[in-house]
Structure formats: C-alpha cells, structure tokens
C-alpha cells in the first residue's frame, strides 16, 4: 500500500479510507499474506483519484466508478473530455486576464464586474455562459432538423448543450459532458446524461435517431463520436460545417477579411465527406436567415455590428480558440470599416439577401 501511495502521490491514510468505504480496495495478496493491489485495483484507484482531482465528491466518484456499463476506455474518454473543458476554462481565464492587462496598460478603468471575470464569477461567459442569452433555437433551422428526424420517436441528442433544437414531441435523451452547460438546461427539458460523444453509455440501436447540433467541432475525437452515434441509433442527423469546398475560408466576409485564424481553428477538423461516409449520410445545405435567432458564428452575416458586442462574441467558441490578440485585431478592424463605410461598400451584395449559404450542412444518414 505504501508503494502505491507513493506512486499515486497520496497518503497511505487516504488509501485506507478508500478501502474502509469500499471505494478502492486492494484484493490481491503478497507471498507473505499481506493485502496488495492487483492490476484491476490500480486501474480503479487511478479512476477514483482522477475524478477526485477534478473536484468530484466521494459519493459522485463512487457512482462513476461503480457504473458497470462503463469500462476503462470509457472512463479515460470521459476524463479526457472533462480535462479539455478545464483547459478551455483556463484559456478563457487567461484571455480575461489579458484583456484587463491591456486595458490597464492603456489607462482604461476596469469595472468591478470586469475584475470578477478572472475569479470565475463570469468566466464561462467566454466559453458558454452566454448561450442562454444569444444561442436560442432558430425556428427555420429547427424545421429543417425536425424534418430530417422524420418519424423517429426516440431521439438521442449528443453534445446537447443547453437543449437548443431538441424536439418537444419525441422521447428525447440528452448527452452533455459539460457541467456548466447541463446547469443551464431549462426546467422540464429532456433528461441529460453526463457523458462524452466518443463513449456513449447505451446499447447498440437503442434509439431511432441520434442527433448532434453544432457540437462535433468541440469533440476530442469527432470521428469516434460519429461512429458511436451510428452504433447506438438506427439513423443519424448532424448539423456541422463544410470545409471540403475549395476556398471555403472566403465564403464569409468575417473570416475572409478580418479573422483568417479561423482556418487554423478547423485545420484538423474532419472533412465533410469523411464524416458523411462514417455515418452513411447525405449532405444538405442549411441556409442561415439574415435575422437568425441562434447566435452561432455566422449568424450575423448581415448584421456586422453585432460582432463588436462582447456578449455576442462570448457565446461563440471561435473567439476563445483564436485568442485575444486575433480577436481584438479583428474587432478593431471591423469597427473601423463599419465607421468608414468600407464594410458596406465591400459587402453591398448582402443587403437584400434573406438567407446565405455559409457552409452550414445537415448530414442525414
């Protein structure tokens, strides 16, 4: 036990406590008859300690490691997803600190509300807390998704977030790894399971259809997640982004003229054809209305001034991914072009369009 405690970086007393409460018990025996940890015991202990270091209480840890439907690989994938979320939180905190340092260097007064950002009170504004304010279901996009679901009665919503686009007339089960997102789901919404797309805790063909809306680009392993969706459901519907088209970076004026770093964000994202092949799907364009109520990245293509608003950008993961320097440069340049009239001159052809095809695609398989 002493050797295991040393390797794990915990005290022997901690291991004794876990043994006493049945959380992680050594089941093997040494030649001298002393209790020892088998390989399986060490694996379970590793999971216990990992969840504890992520802040889970002992009761929560017991439920997690005691789940007989979850194996070591599933635990590793779940831990990976949780750590990625923590990393995103840390990145957002760094971005908040950078903004305050920049403001103070320029002699700009920092408000108490802004100061609290770095302590976490408003931190998730940078990576998801603003979703309920700006990421609302757009009825036109919802209608296209609902049509793709067809006559499915049981629906699995993977990477469900706060619940946008979940049908209300079906039996829905949601999957969302982020505790922050889960906490923002409205009362009465579908039951939500804390799990990652790459390791869905369901039997094969458990659902009529599995859906995923604007979430695949957040997954650690998009292809694995898609294969899991295909495994647990008879059909799959995925709203995602097309990077197959030559010159796709220039479809949208924001990425073309102000934020070329967007291409780097999606550099390792699977091609649309590869994703479609993985789930046996066809691709259908999803036009974005000029007055789209879902504040996704391309939503304000005819309302450029919205991108100057901090709360609007905070509901878009792209800005956190490109970093504060690129964000500030893009916003400053766009603001100047709007004030000078250059943006309107460059994009005069958009003024009378009701919808735009900016690469949003619905995979239906």
TrEMBL record:
Gene3D superfamilies: 1.10.1660.10, Vaccinia Virus protein VP39 (3.40.50.150). Signal peptide: none annotated. It comes from the Bacteria. GO terms for molecular function: methyltransferase activity. InterPro entries: DNA-bd_dom_put_sf (IPR009061), MerR-type_HTH_dom (IPR000551), MerR_fam (IPR047057), Methyltransf_11 (IPR013216), SAM-dependent_MTases_sf (IPR029063). Residues 1-67 form the HTH merR-type domain. SMART domains: HTH_MERR. GO terms for biological process: methylation. SUPFAM superfamilies: Putative DNA-binding domain (SSF46955), S-adenosyl-L-methionine-dependent methyltransferases (SSF53335). It holds the Pfam family Methyltransf_11. The keyword DNA-binding applies. Keywords: DNA-binding, Methyltransferase, Transferase. PANTHER family: HTH MERR-TYPE DOMAIN-CONTAINING PROTEIN, REDOX-CYCLING DRUG-SENSING TRANSCRIPTIONAL ACTIVATOR SOXR. This is Methyltransferase domain-containing protein.
